[in-house]
Structure formats: structure tokens, C-alpha cells
């Protein structure tokens, strides 16, 4: 198979979809890998490293899309890429369709095959291609939240860990999944007083057992959220419903109950956000303020640490990419239920129910395209 790796052109997206080591594993199996000029540079992988393992460098993004049978990316295609995507071309990347209707309709119209990292799912319901970036984003959420609590950038002026004689900061984490667990772990490590909320009691029991003493668990309900937000310094939204839009747990009217300079970090923003007032921001302009509450809603947080993120992502995606390249997408998805669940749009049909429901589009059973 011919695999193409274009440069990521979303604002301040410094990751690349494939390391040179990952390219080598595909090339060893008889596949051809084309990498756009300097696609890996910001992640610490210059052209020479790709060429040393047998990958070929192409000068433009147009050339990569034109030649490749499978495109491997990190983030969803943006508008300038829509016209480059060909019918029947396989795109293997994060899409987060349910949060952006124009992208969904563009992929329907170009009749490509869209296999989304974020909905590849194991039998135990875990999301193996979302986990590594969720780990990065969860840890970064606390790191960024701690920074934006500083007074010069309009925060409360609270040091999360406190100092002797001064109470530590308070952190509320909404969601006890991978993102929330990592965020809580980092906040606890800084010495903050942390509350983590979820609706899954089994998960809360587990977190209660494994977290340090400065982390407590609470059942997630509107009443409990409203009780806690007036005393919190940092609130991290870490809720995920696979493939679907996140629910709004922090609503517009709740801002009035928060102290001036409270920081909100919405890690779920690329799935529509779980904080009603959040809208996607960039690393270039990461925050905005509503009612004296600081909002940090960067949709590609791991892009700020591209070396770590690229290596972690390739570790997870490579086995699936090899399977797709070796067998072709149809056979691979027929034989691997995990990959089948990654299929969202196929040749004009929406085959992932949550995406169809998000925009009231017709839903087509994926088996139509696999049989």
C-alpha cells in the first residue's frame, strides 16, 4: 500500500502521524511511505531520519494526497484539505465528527473512507488510540490550569500546592476516565486538594483505592457540582462519550457562582465541550474570559509537546496501520472488530450512529460496505 503522511496545518499543531521508526515498520512489510517535506521537523524528526529508513520525501501536501492510498494524520482535515481528498481514499486520523458538521458533510461529499482514531474500540470498551493523547492532555490540563491561575494572566493568584501555613489550591475534575485520572494525578502531585467526579460508582471505588489521600471522589450530579464550584480554583472538564458530543456539565449560569479568576480547562472541547461557555481556542490564543472566569479550551493540547505526543501516538496507531496496509481497509475491518468500530464515514454514508444522530443525518449499517 502507498501511505502518505502530510504536514499538519491546523494552528500550532506540531505533531506528525508517524515517526521514522513507524515508517520503517511499514516499509519492511513492503509498503511505500511518502512524507511531506518537514512534516516531522517540529516533532524532532527531520527529513533525513525518514529518508534513512527508506521513506520518500514529497515537496507539497498536494503531492502527498495525490499519490497516497492511505493518509495518516493526527488532526482532522481542515477546509483547505477537503478538495485534496479523493474518492475511496482511506483517511486514518482523529476526526471528532460529532463536534463539527461542515467536516462531516465534506467527507460525505468526497466519498472517502474515514477511519477515526477516537472510535477504534476494544472489547472492554477502552479506546486504544485515544488513550495516549488523553494521557498527555490530562496531564497538560493541570499544568496549564496551574499556569493560568497566576494573577498576571487574570487568574486568582493561587499556587496549587500552597506553601507551609497557606492552604493548597482546590481542583475539581469532571470525569474519572483516562483524562480525568491523569489530571487528578498531576494535581495531587502538586499538592492540591482534588475532587474527582464521575457517574460510574465502580470507577469511583477504583479511584478511591489508588489515588493519594489528597484526592477525594464524589458522585457527579448537578446538585453536587453546584455545591463545589464556589470553592474551586481550577475546574477541569474531562468527560467523553465516544464519538458523540460531550454533555454540558458546567452551564453558563454557573459562572456567577464561581470566584473571580477561577480557571476552567475543557479537555472535551474537540468533542463539543462539557463546559457550555467553552469554544475551541489555539495555542496562539489559548484563553478568553467570561464573567471574570478564565477559559482555556485549546482543542489540540498535546500539540504543544509534539515529541512526546508523536511517539506515544505512533506506539498506539502503528499495529492498526500495519493491519490496514497489509490487508486493505475492508478486509482488515471485517477481521478486526476494533477497526470496524473506527469507521465513521464510508463513500458518502455515515456508518457511526452517534455522528448521524448529532446532525440528523441518515445512518447506514457499516456491514453494507464490508459484506
Write a concise keyword list for the protein shown above:
single chain, 371 residues, alpha/beta, Rossmann fold, 2 domains, eight-stranded mixed sheet, seven-stranded mixed sheet, 14 helices, 34% helix
General shape: globular
- Spell out the CATH superfamily of the largest domain: NAD(P)-binding Rossmann-like Domain
Second-tier CATH architecture of the largest domain: 3-Layer(aba) Sandwich
Series of H and E elements: EHEHEHEHEHEHEHEHEHEEEEHHHEEHH
Main beta-sheet strand count, sense and barrel state? 8 strands, mixed
> CATH topology of the largest domain, which one?
Rossmann fold
Spatial order of the strands in the main sheet?
A: 3-2-1-4-5-6-14-15
Q: What is the highest CATH level, the class of the largest domain?
A: Alpha Beta
Helical region count?
14
Low-confidence stretches: none
* DSSP strand content: 15-25%
In total, the number of domains comes to: 2
Question: Terminal Cα separation, in Å?
Answer: 22 Å
Mean pLDDT: 96
Rg, Å, rounded: 21 Å
State the helical fraction: 25-40%
Look at the helices and sheets and give the structural class.
Answer: alpha/beta
Strand segment count:
15
Q: What's this entry about, in short?
A:
Mg(2+) binds at residue 323. The chain is of the alpha/beta class.
How are the SSEs ordered, and which strands pair?
Blueprint: E1 2-5, H1 20-28, E2 32-36, H2 47-52, E3 56-58, H3 61-67, E4 70-72, H4 79-82, E5 90-93, H5 101-110, E6 113-116, H6 131-148, E7 170-174, H7 178-190, E8 193-198, H8 201-210, E9 215-219, H9 222-228, E10 234-237, E11 263-266, E12 287-290, E13 293-296, H10 306-327, H11 329-335, H12 337-340, E14 343-346, E15 349-350, H13 353-358, H14 367-370
Parallel strand pairs: 1-2, 1-4, 2-3, 4-5, 5-6, 7-8, 7-10, 8-9, 10-11, 11-13
Antiparallel strand pairs: 6-14, 12-13, 14-15
Helix pairs in contact: 6-7, 10-11
Amino acid at each position: 500500500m502507498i501511505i502518505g503522511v502530510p504536514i499538519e496545518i491546523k494552528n500550532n499543531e506540531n505533531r506528525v502521524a508517524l515517526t521514522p521508526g513507524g515508517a520503517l515498520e511499514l516499509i519492511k512489510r513492503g509498503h511505500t511511505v511518502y512524507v511531506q517535506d518537514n512534516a516531522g521537523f517540529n516533532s524532532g524528526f527531520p527529513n533525513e531520519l525518514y529518508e534513512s529508513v527508506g521513506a520518500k520525501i514529497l515537496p507539497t501536501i498536494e503531492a502527498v494526497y495525490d499519490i497516497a492510498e492511505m493518509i495518516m494524520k493526527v488532526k482532522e482535515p481542515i477546509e483547505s484539505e477537503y478538495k485534496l481528498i479523493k474518492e475511496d481514499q482511506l483517511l486514518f486520523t482523529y476526526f471528532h465528527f460529532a463536534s463539527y458538521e461542515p467536516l462531516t458533510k465534506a467527507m460525505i461529499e468526497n466519498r472517502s473512507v474515514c477511519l477515526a482514531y477516537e472510535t477504534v474500540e476494544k472489547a472492554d470498551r477502552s479506546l486504544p488510540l485515544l488513550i495516549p493523547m488523553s494521557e498527555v492532555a490530562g496531564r497538560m490540563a493541570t499544568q496549564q490550569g496551574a499556569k493560568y491561575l497566576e494573577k498576571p494572566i487574570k487568574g486568582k493568584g493561587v499556587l496549587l500546592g500552597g506553601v507551609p501555613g497557606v492552604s493548597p489550591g482546590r481542583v475539581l475534575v469532571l470525569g474519572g476516565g483516562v483524562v480525568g485520572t491523569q489530571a487528578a494525578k498531576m494535581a495531587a502531585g502538586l499538592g492540591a486538594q482534588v475532587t474527582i467526579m464521575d457517574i460510574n460508582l465502580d470507577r469511583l471505588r477504583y479511584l478511591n483505592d489508588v489515588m493519594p489521600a489528597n484526592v477525594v471522589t464524589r458522585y457527579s450530579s448537578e446538585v453536587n457540582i453546584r455545591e463545589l464550584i464556589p470553592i474551586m480554583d481550577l475546574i477541569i472538564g474531562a468527560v467523553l462519550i465516544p464519538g458523540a458530543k460531550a454533555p454540558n456539565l458546567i452551564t453558563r449560569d454557573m459562572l456567577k457562582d464561581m470566584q473571580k479568576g477561577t480557571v476552567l480547562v475543557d479537555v472535551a472541547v474537540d468533542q463539543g465541550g462539557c463546559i457550555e461557555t467553552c469554544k475551541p481556542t489555539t495555542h496562539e490564543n489559548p484563553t478568553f474570559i467570561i464573567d471574570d472566569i478564565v477559559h482555556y479550551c485549546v482543542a489540540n493540547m498535546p500539540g504543544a509537546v509534539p515529541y512526546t505526543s508523536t511517539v506515544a501516538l505512533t506506539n498506539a496507531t502503528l499495529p492498526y496501520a500495519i493491519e490496514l496496509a497489509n490487508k486493505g481497509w475492508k478486509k482488515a475491518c471485517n477481521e478486526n472488530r476494533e477497526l470496524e468500530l473506527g469507521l465513521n464515514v464510508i463513500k458518502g454514508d455515515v456508518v457511526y450512529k452517534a455522528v448521524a444522530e448529532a446532525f440528523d443525518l441518515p445512518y447506514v449499517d457499516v456491514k453494507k460496505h464490508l459484506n
